[in-house]
Design a protein that fits this description.
Number of helices: 7
Strand order of the largest sheet: 3-2-1-4
Number of strands: 4
Radius of gyration: 15 Å
Helix content: 55-70%
């Protein structure tokens, strides 16, 4: 199955039980391989930590999520200073994105992969840049 660039918003929407992901998104992500920028694991860890603190999930749910993540094929792109300060920064400026969001767009463009995100600014930028949305 081809890879999909998956941002934290899309992953969390399909992971936490109190979220309502857009129709069809969990199926599209299904068993797909994830391609993610280096920041993704930290963003996901922070989102899960906030879910624990706000009692949106308990430790039992976290164990299930951790096992699921370990079993999933996730290709984490290494962080590269040259890429961050060139392509990613240029995309952030051009599309008025945060550098974090631009990292997902840059990866999708460079690898010609669809992008799964719930972030409206990132979705808008992806459409303008010609990136397919998952």
């Amino acid at each position: 199955m081809p890879a999909i660039v998956v941002d934290c918003s899309a992953f969390i929407a399909c992971t936490l039980l109190d979220e309502e992901p857009p129709k069809g998104l969990p199926e599209r992500l299904g068993e797909a391989e994830f391609a993610v920028p280096a920041i993704w694991p930290i963003e996901v860890a922070n989102a899960l930590l906030m879910a624990l603190r706000k009692k949106r999930a308990d430790e039992a749910a976290m164990q299930i999520i951790r096992r699921s993540l370990k079993a999933r094929s996730i290709e984490v792109e290494p962080g590269r200073v040259d890429l961050a300060l060139s392509s990613t920064l240029a995309l952030a400026a051009e599309y008025k994105l945060t550098a974090y969001d631009a990292a997902y767009l840059e990866l999708a463009l460079r690898r010609d992969l669809p992008l799964a995100t719930l972030d409206s600014d990132l979705r808008r930028a992806a459409k303008k840049a010609g990136v397919a949305l998952a």
